[in-house]
Amino acid sequence: MTGRQRAEGEGQVVAVRADRPPSPTGSGASRGIVAAFLVSAAGAVGFAAAYGLGGGTRWEGVGLAVAFAGLAVGLALWGRHLAPGGGYVEEHEGFAPAPDEQALTAAALTAPDSPVRRRGLLAALGLALTALGAAALFPLRSLLPRPGARPVRALGETPWGPGVRLVDDNGRPLRPRDVPADTLVAVFPEGDAGAGDAPAFAVRLEPARFSRPPAGGHLDGLAAWSLLCTHAGCPVRLYLKGTGRILCPCHQSSFDLLAGARPVAGPAARALPGLPIEVGPDGFLRATGDFTAPPGAGFWDTP
């Protein structure tokens, strides 16, 4: 396309201009282009031959380099001497509206019934925007520490407390004889069996085997601890009968109940919290207080 062309469509005038016509195809550039492409083809054949004859990666790379170099030179010569050159300019109307349109817009905005001249609407809009801006600041308050909401304090308070009876998973209150020797029994606080931080277990061990007394004390070998692993909060219900050890199935933390339920293997670094218990006047087991430490994952201990 050469020269200057104009076309009209939907009230706009578009002009396209080619500054420089392409060079004649019969010039020496054509011969150079053909030679470059032939070199490229020769390089490709050389690569194929080197690959087929097992000539090694060096000659294969040389063949590819010659092929791509010849192709690049040929395309460059083609674009430089045969393709149309120069820039293209597309003209269009100015961005400013026509004077009559500007006058109509100014008259509409300054008229008595113009929306921007109604002070009541503007005041209501300002109030709405101010309220929205103030409301957007409230979520920032969630980033500030709040008294009473610290994890250590929250997990340090469970439904266990003085006088709360121990029940099994059926809600049946337990007596000391309901916990056989060397057998783990899951226990829950009466009335709050569904509390996530309250599950515990009771086990009866030989008192003479204790190298460290349970943190919550014991009743002739009967002691209770939190059921939640101090590593990630999984329930530790794999009791190794006869060893006095209990295992967490999630990450294989092991706790020695004969040594204060301290961790002896696995990632847990904190002993299981003990639950102080006694026998109530009615003959049932009941707690005398909360756990001796926050139950569950140990990272809640971080202040």
From TrEMBL:
Ion transport keyword on record: no
UniProt KW keywords: 2Fe-2S, Disulfide bond, Iron, Iron-sulfur, Membrane, Metal-binding, Transmembrane, Transmembrane helix
Record SUPFAM superfamilies: ISP domain
Domain Rieske, residue spans: 185-286
InterPro entries assigned: Rieske_2Fe-2S (IPR017941), Rieske_2Fe-2S_sf (IPR036922), Rieske_Fe-S_prot (IPR014349)
Spans traversing the lipid bilayer: 33-54, 61-79, 121-140
Highest rank taxon of the organism: Bacteria
Function of the protein: Iron-sulfur subunit of the cytochrome bc1 complex, an essential component of the respiratory electron transport chain required for ATP synthesis. The bc1 complex catalyzes the oxidation of menaquinol and the reduction of cytochrome c in the respiratory chain. The bc1 complex operates through a Q-cycle mechanism that couples electron transfer to generation of the proton gradient that drives ATP synthesis.
Protein name stated in the entry: Cytochrome bc1 complex Rieske iron-sulfur subunit
Source organism (scientific name): Micromonospora olivasterospora
